[in-house]
Each structure stands twice: as structure tokens, then as C-alpha cells.
Amino acid sequence: MSPTGSGKTLAFVLPLLEMLDKRKKGVQLLIMVPSRELGIQIEQVFRDIGSGYKVNLVYGGRRIAKDKIELAHLPSILIGTPGRIADHCRRDPSNFRDVSYLVIDEYDKVLEIGFEEDMDEIVSYLPNLSRKIYTSATSGISLPDFLNSHNPKTLHFLDFQKPKIQVKRVVSPDKDKLSTLLNLLCNLGEKAGIVFCNFKDSIERVSNYLGDHGIQHVCFHGGLEQRERERALIKFRNGTERILLATDLAARGLDVPSLHFIIHYHLPFREEEYTHRNGRTARMKEDGTVYVIHWEGDELPEFIRGDEYHFQPSPKPKNSEWRTVFISGGKRDKISKGDIAGLCFKQGKLSKQHLGLIELKSDCAFVAVQKSKVNQLIKLADNTKLKTKKVRIFEV
Fold it and tell me: Contact at 8 Å (CB) between 249 and 276?
């Protein structure tokens, strides 16, 4: 157990890589995660460090045929959500007989969202496990009996790196709280942060209100298609959007930069949710501020403490000067970030200050470009060759 943002992924990845056997074929390390986003993040960690092992990710919501193609040659490391992994175990149990190491990342969240039956079934397909690792940013969650983890050794780092979080209570005169949220966001200006709601239906309502008042933002919740969720995070990471309006799906396991603030538009139901939400800010020894919006008639739970925050009315913040551009070529086409930067500089006639974060995927790339230069880049570089591939370029 250790605080959010403290590097738990590398903490288990690096030692396990030392234990894997390059001579063996088939899955040796199985990593279960509660969400697709966390799986994508862990897969990227393996690729970034150049593990030397084949790594694949499987999750619900995408075609099983795509999994079959990728697993035709079994990886040494398989990452996935419990439901999809259980499906593959049923289809071909022999693929999992040689798994020696099992990691359940954010195991408290995996248990919370009801994957016990799937995990119980998966463990029954792993007869040769020699080590199990469970990670979490909270304590006090007991392990189910089916994991057969007797007298586990606990590494506890929750007090090792206390985040510097300042909690401020914002009292809303109206039970609705929408106008209070709007005024607070105007007061915070051009800083980046997440606004947490408890339900996806509430996000639609809040989003419509903010949009009507000219507050630029993106939404993130389980009701969105995977592509929509990924693009929302890309825009949030690269500065195209500064506000992420999200459910607790965004409270953990997301690859986002350290944020200036977190706003609890809805009060969290439990202390664990409050802790994980707050963990999106004040990461890796940086400071952060948490704002709790509550109606003056609300009774706050014991775990929420903070001074009341008063602020003066402020003008609407300026929207971001960045936009996100899609390029239809990626790693699979032997294209690098340097190749993409070269395309933008040479064909697109951009200067360095016009180009922001480049995110390179297997089959495409997303580039942050200054708003004033987007049309120029598209006009000059769309339908031109990048390496050996003719690429399409458009704003998303």
C-alpha cells in the first residue's frame, strides 16, 4: 500500500521482470486491473522501459476477435480486466497453466466493483502460481479466501509520503450548487483540475450547464465509448482542455499530470472514495488543493475537514490556446515522435512554440497544436507521406 501517484506500477514491474524466464514460452505474469484505463497505463509502462517481453492487454468492450489475433502468439505478460481474462481462461485453460506470478492492481477497487466470481474462477485456472502481489492506495481491505493468501507480507507506505493537500469547503446557498461550481471555476481561472460527480447522468446535466456558460471541459465516465474516454484524457493531458468532469472512474489508475485542484461537486459516499479522488492532486510531493462544495444544510461526514473558502466573483477564464490534431500513423508504421515533429515543422511550417505534447499510439498519434496554427498544419501536411505512409490529419 502506498499513496496515489507514488510509483506503485514500477515498484512491482521492475522486480517481476527480473524473475521472468526468457526461455519460457507462454504467459508467465498475469496482471488484473479494475479498468481499461489502468490496463492501458500499465501496458505503456512496460513498453516505455523496454521490457524485452511480449505484452498484451485484454479488456471488455472490444471485439474478442482482436484478442484472438494478438494472443495467437502468447505473450509473457498479460494484462486485463477480470471479466475478459476469465473469458479467455474458459476458452483455452492451457494458456494459463504456466502463470507463475499474479498481480491484482488496485485490488480494493477490483473487489468493490464485483469481480469476486471472475477472480475466483481465474485463480482456479492458475495451478502453478508461486507469487501473488496485491496493490492499493488504501488499507483495511481484507483478502477473499479464494486467493489463498495466508499470512501475507504487507508493505505499508501510506505514511511515508504524506501529500500536501489543502482542503477548502465552499458553501453553496442553493441546494442545486451549479452556480456555485461555475463561480468557483471562474475564480480558479486557467488552472487544470477534475470536478467529481457521483453519477454519469449528473455529469450530463453539469456539462450542459457549464457549456451554456462558456466553460470549456471534457467528460469522463463509464457510459462513454472507449474511444471517447481515451480522447477526453488525451485532450486533458495535453492542455487542450483544462477541466475534466468525471465520475469516480477517474479517481484512480489514470495517467494524468499532477493537477492544481480537485472539486467534489457531489460529496463522496465513503472515505476511500474521498481519498482516491484527492489523490489526483498533490502527486509526487507536489502541493494541491481540494474544494468540497456543499449546501449550507448538508451535514458533512466525519472524514471531510477543512476551512470555509470565501472568494470574490471573477470573470470567465480564457479557453485553452491549444487544440488536438489526429494523425493516422503510429508505432506500427515505424513512425516515431521525432518523425511527427518533423512533419509538423517541415511540411506544416510550425515553429517549436506552436507544437505541444505528442502522444504516439500503435496505429495513430495525437498532437497538441496552437489553435492559430491548426488550419495551416492541416492544409500543408494532410494527405502527405510520413515515412512510407500517406497520413490523414484533422482536428478532433
Answer: no
Q: In the chain, which residues have pLDDT < 70?
A: 1-7, 137-141, 150, 156-163, 253, 258, 282-286
**119 and 175 part of one domain:** no
Element (H, E) at 353: none
CA-CA distance, 173 to 53, in Å (whole number)? 57
* CATH number of the domain where residue 106 is located: 3.40.50.300
- Residue 259 is classified by DSSP as B
Residue ending a domain, choose from 115, 147, 179: 147
Strands 77-80 and 101-104: unpaired
- Maximum Cα–Cα distance for the chain, whole Å? 66
Tell me if 41 sits within 8 A of 253, measured CB to CB: yes
Spatial distance between the Cα atoms of 203 and 194, rounded to a whole number of angstroms: 12
Closest C-alpha to 206, from 192, 191, 221:
221
Q: How many domains does the chain have?
A: 3
The grid cell for 224 is 462513454
Three-state secondary-structure class, residue 176: coil
CA distance 167 to 177: 18
Domain enclosing residue 335, as ranges: 322-395
Q: Return all residues near 251 (Cβ < 8 A) that are at least 6 apart.
A: 196, 273, 276, 277, 279, 280
Q: What is the pLDDT of residue 1?
A: 45
The residue among 225, 252, 244 whose CA lies nearest residue 109 is: 252
The reply to whether 19 and 142 lie within a common domain is yes
pLDDT at 30: 97
Number of helices (H) and strands (E) in the chain: give both, helices first. 12, 18
> Exposed, middle or buried by CB within 10 Å (0-12, 13-18, 19+), for 297?
exposed
Strand partners, 370: 322
